[in-house]
Amino acid sequence: MPRPTTGTVDGLLLVDKPAGVSSHDVVSLARRALGEKRIGHAGTLDPFATGLLVVLVGRATRLLPHLPGEPKVYEATIRFGVETDTEDLHGAVVREAPCPARAAVLAALPGLTGSLQQVPPAYSAKRVEGRRAYDLARAGVPVDLKPATIRVDRWEVLALRAADGTPVAIGDPTPVVEADVRIHCGGGTYIRSLARDLARAVGSAAHLSALRRIRSGPFDVCDAQPMAELRAGAARLRPSLAALPGFPVQVLADDELPRIVRGIDVAAQVPGGWGALTNRENGVLVALCERRADRWQPRVVMREA
What we know:
Elements: E1 11-17, H1 23-34, E2 39-41, E3 50-57, E4 72-80, E5 82-84, E6 93-96, H2 102-108, E7 114-118, E8 127-128, E9 131-132, H3 133-138, E10 148-161, E11 178-185, H4 191-201, E12 206-216, E13 219-220, E14 225-226, H5 227-231, E15 249-251, H6 257-261, E16 266-267, E17 274-278, E18 285-292, E19 295-301
Parallel strand pairs: 1-14, 3-12, 15-17
Antiparallel strand pairs: 1-3, 2-3, 4-11, 4-12, 5-6, 7-10, 8-9, 10-11, 12-13, 16-19, 17-18, 18-19
């Protein structure tokens, strides 16, 4: 049974989401495990995808707009030869084309690096006249999504394979059927659509057969707990301060604490444009503050006055 909500369950959860469940499913499990309704995640993962989901709990959800979340790092398997309507392995086939050569794949990657205009997939959470694009697509309504500016920092090619699973070496004319890649990018980038565009650039078709998020800003999937632990009612809740790695930390003097919780500024003693202010007693995050000259102005207060 979930423990009753006390209003003091605050912090950070890093969860390794398996395939076949939604990001909302993870949030629901965390609510039951912690007995806390105020839970939000920093960036949805598609149900077929696996990997890191950054979850904030209780009053820590106030930090979501300030959470460091870039770059995103994904590992993906691109399957050439077939494009689907969802751009992943669960969609219906909409186009087929020959698989590309190794040299063509590698030559196309620089053109898909940097600042790009990307048309999101029809099966996405983008809104069209107030409705989700995936709802329209499922209903058979044509979806015309406008391109969005995204950023791709780097592609790493981990493996290029032929139809029989053997590697395609330099100079080998065998078509590439699968490519394992690691992509470093900004938020809002659809890896499914990068696979689609890569294939189209080389005269082929493609979809994602696997996708895993391994990093989001300073947070790494290696530090995440399996979702099975949440199902068992166990949540490795980290302090709210752990959601702000890299932020300068200032310990509040006893007379400064009541000022900050009432939204009154205090003197800045550490450098930086933003600061995490903690209490002297146990190092708990009290407020996230923005510098104004030599003062800290509270922007997110983590406790009541």
